[in-house]
Amino acid sequence: MLAIVILAAAALLAAVLDQPLPPVAGKARASDGDSLRLGEARIRLLGLDAPELAQDCDGADGRPWPCGRAARDRMAALLSGGAVQCRPEDTDQYGRLLATCTAGGSDLGAVMVAEGLAISSGRYWTEEAAARQRRAGIWAGGFDTPRDWRDDHARPQGAFGWLPTFWPRI
């Protein structure tokens, strides 16, 4: 009998903890090409990876251009049209909501990838293939993937090394 009670309590706890995250909506502002703020909520778009804000890419002529700023500016333009609706699916290690968001009826991730201002990372493969074929945005010349760029330009850990991972206010 005790085993049944324990299993029932565990099942109830799992059901409570596995509740879907509620949608969020409102006026948003761009943080970079794949993340935004909606009120106090920090949101990272799912299925894409945009160049980092300080990242440059090579243009068709081989000259560098600020692709990270261009991606952020395009995201800001997409967000300026009014309310944004986001469907969170999870949170990441930084406490950001991981979500698919729309503005003006358009999927923000699909637009960013289709315009060559982000790469697909699990979704938007069709949009990436079309952007590559058109040599749109980052596909016009050479670039480091955002992941490789982040790895090569790691932020300094500070005086306490790895401790901020556990105690971020140190």
Helix content: 25-40%
Low-pLDDT runs of 5+ residues are 166-170
Q: Which structural category do the helix and sheet elements fall into? A: alpha+beta
Query: What is the C-level CATH assignment?
Result: Mainly Beta
| Major β-sheet annotation | 7 strands, mixed
What is the alpha-carbon Rg in Å? 19 Å
Label the CATH architecture. Beta Barrel
Give helix and strand order, one letter per element, not per position: HEEEEEEEHEEEHEHHH
What value does the average pLDDT take?
A: 87
| Global outline | globular
Q: How many angstroms does the end-to-end distance come to?
A: 48 Å
Tell me the count of domains: 1
Q: Helix count, per DSSP?
A: 6
List keywords for this structure.
170 residues, alpha+beta, OB fold (Dihydrolipoamide Acetyltransferase, E2P), seven-stranded mixed β-sheet, 6 helices, 25% strand, globular
Explain what you see.
The termini are far apart. The protein has helices at residues 2-17, 67-79, 108-114, 125-134, 146-152, 163-166; strands spanning 24-26, 28-32, 35-38, 41-45, 48-49, 57-58, 64-65, 84-91, 97-103, 106-107, 119-120. The strands form 3 sheets. Strands 1, 2, 3, 4, 8, 9 and 10 form a 7-stranded mixed beta sheet that branches. By secondary structure, the protein is an alpha+beta fold. Strand 6 and strand 7 form a beta hairpin. The protein is globular, with a radius of gyration of 19 Å. The protein is built from 6 helices and 11 strands. It has one domain (20-141): OB fold (Dihydrolipoamide Acetyltransferase, E2P) (Beta Barrel), CATH 2.40.50. The longest helix is centred in the N-terminal third of the chain and has 16 residues, at 2-17.
